[in-house]
């Protein structure tokens, strides 16, 4: 256990890999960056998609802090605690207040919609019951006796209302996945249709039954049954419009991440642009590898190094245009040889990755072999001396810590794996009797975004930029952009072409062949 504590102290770079004051300054600078559209086109619309407000807003500030660090950050970095000061301009304050007002407006809009839907649903379920009870309360003595058929209708109304209640709960009472910028057109259409339908039934009931005090109680009950039947048909219409209509694939969308060009293809049905954007985001967190800005710094540093190596001397007082031409000519000559530098840099990087990967695999296999031996020995001891999975993970972690740290630094994944998360994953693998290969899968192969800790990748706010109205349906050639703080997703929509198949019949008896022998052959 002492070895585990010593290695944990030397491995503190996982949790303190940047100074507090520098990190706070960068966080303050990045926090007030807003994803704005730089285009001057008036036809372009920009709206916002927000996830439920219970989640924290965390960006990739830690990944930015890694860009300027050397390869030995785990050994040389010192954690400095203290306070940091940064200034905020009047424009930043105005933008923050605007964001707060927008969030309050979205919350009010969401709760207002839920309130209206709840009130309307309560009115729908109470209306048939009120149709049956009001005559019994107001003019009970004048009503005709309810026979066997009338009493059977009571059972029919009760079970139909129960079925309608269960179907409504399954279709509408769901946890919202996101706050869309505009209303859902079909949902609003259904709410308006239900309101008009119930209002017309109440109007007819008030004029023909309440005013005249109709004594035919069986007819009144049948009127309530017809209302419940119509509500069931409206519920069926809601299932068709909200669920079944979008199931048939009609469009193929290509999603490209703007920073590294990673792309995926998805098939979508008849959806509005805002709902298609929601589907794209759900699939993005599942299918795309986690965004790692540290992998993009190599090309930038290489370009900066090439430009830094160019020096222009003004010896005889030439003008600036001559210097610029000399700069361009020198850059062209350097560009001719830059591909060789790129080739050798990539080859050297791949060699170092393979080398450190081999060391990591050997270290992990030896550590798991040790924990298996410990388990065999511990079975002969008293129950009080047995090790739980957490203690076993802490016991074998020091033997693989340095190799894992070097591999994560080489592949630039260190900002996504803290020491605590590695220990939790190791104890999980020990608990479920998983192999070393299963443990290493998370670190050797970059996984989807959802695989990592939520505070490493989660972005609360996405901005949807589209030239078309976000409530309009998908069409061939539509392009929209989903922006967050660090990158954007460009979505290109293509309609699946109409496919025409023809049939050709082949008679099985036509499969007849003749073997032709020649005298020159050896057959």
From TrEMBL:
The keyword Ribosomal protein does not apply. The chain crosses the membrane at residues 111-133, 153-172, 184-204, 224-244. Pfam families: Strabismus (PF06638). Residues 19-35 have a biased composition (Basic residues). It comes from the Eukaryota. GO terms for cellular component: plasma membrane. Residues 74-86 have a biased composition (Polar residues). It is a multi-pass membrane protein. Keywords: Cell membrane, Membrane, Transmembrane, Transmembrane helix. Belongs to the Vang family. This is VANG1 protein. It comes from Machaerirhynchus nigripectus.
């Amino acid at each position: 256990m002492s070895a585990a504590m010593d290695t944990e102290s030397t491995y503190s770079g996982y949790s303190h890999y940047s100074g507090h004051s520098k990190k706070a300054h960068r966080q303050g600078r990045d926090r007030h960056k807003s994803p704005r559209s730089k285009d001057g086109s008036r036809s372009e619309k920009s709206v916002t998609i927000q996830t439920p407000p219970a989640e924290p807003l965390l960006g990739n500030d830690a990944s930015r802090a890694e860009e300027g660090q050397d390869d030995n950050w785990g050994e040389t970095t010192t954690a400095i605690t203290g306070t940091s000061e940064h200034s905020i301009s009047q424009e930043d304050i105005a933008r923050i207040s605007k964001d707060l007002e927008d969030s309050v407006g979205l919350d009010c809009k969401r709760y207002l919609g839920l309130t209206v839907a709840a009130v309307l649903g309560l009115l729908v379920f109470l209306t048939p019951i009120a149709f049956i009870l009001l005559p019994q309360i107001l003019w009970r003595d004048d009503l005709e006796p309810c026979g066997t058929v009338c009493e059977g209708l009571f059972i029919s109304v009760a079970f139909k209302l129960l079925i309608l209640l269960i179907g409504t709960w399954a279709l509408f009472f769901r946890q919202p996945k996101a706050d869309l910028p505009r209303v859902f057109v079909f949902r609003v259409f259904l709410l308006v249709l239900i309101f008009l339908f119930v209002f017309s039934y109440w109007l007819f009931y008030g004029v023909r039954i309440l005013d005249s005090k109709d004594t035919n109680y069986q007819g009144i009950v049948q009127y309530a049954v017809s209302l419940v039947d119509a509500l069931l048909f409206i519920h069926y219409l809601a299932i068709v419009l909200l669920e079944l209509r979008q199931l048939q694939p009609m469009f193929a969308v290509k999603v490209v991440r703007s920073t590294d060009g990673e792309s995926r293809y998805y098939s979508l049905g008849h959806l509005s642009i805002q709902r298609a954007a929601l589907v794209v985001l759900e699939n993005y967190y599942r299918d795309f590898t986690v965004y790692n800005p540290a992998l993009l710094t190599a090309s930038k540093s290489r370009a900066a190094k090439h430009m830094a190596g160019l020096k222009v001397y003004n010896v005889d007082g030439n003008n600036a245009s001559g210097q610029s031409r000399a700069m361009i000519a020198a850059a062209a000559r350097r560009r001719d040889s830059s591909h060789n530098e790129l080739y050798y840099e990539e080859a050297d990087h791949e060699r170092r990755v393979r080398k450190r990967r081999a060391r990591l695999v050997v270290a992990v296999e030896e550590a798991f072999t040790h924990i298996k031996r410990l388990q065999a020995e511990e079975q002969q001891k008293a129950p009080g001396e047995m090790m739980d999975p957490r203690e076993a993970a802490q016991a074998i972690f020091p033997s693989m810590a340095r190799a894992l740290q070097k591999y994560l630094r080489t592949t630039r994944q260190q900002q996504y794996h803290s020491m605590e998360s590695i220990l939790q994953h190791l104890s999980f693998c020990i608990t479920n009797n998983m192999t070393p290969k299963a443990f290493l899968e998370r670190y050797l192969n970059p996984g989807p975004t959802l695989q990592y800790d939520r505070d490493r990748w989660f972005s609360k706010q996405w901005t949807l930029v589209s030239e078309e109205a976000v409530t309009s349906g998908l069409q061939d050639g539509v392009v929209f952009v989903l922006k967050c703080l660090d990158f954007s997703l460009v979505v290109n929509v293509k309609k699946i072409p109409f496919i025409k198949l023809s049939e050709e019949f082949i008679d099985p008896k036509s499969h007849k062949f003749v073997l032709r022998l020649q005298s020159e052959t050896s057959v």
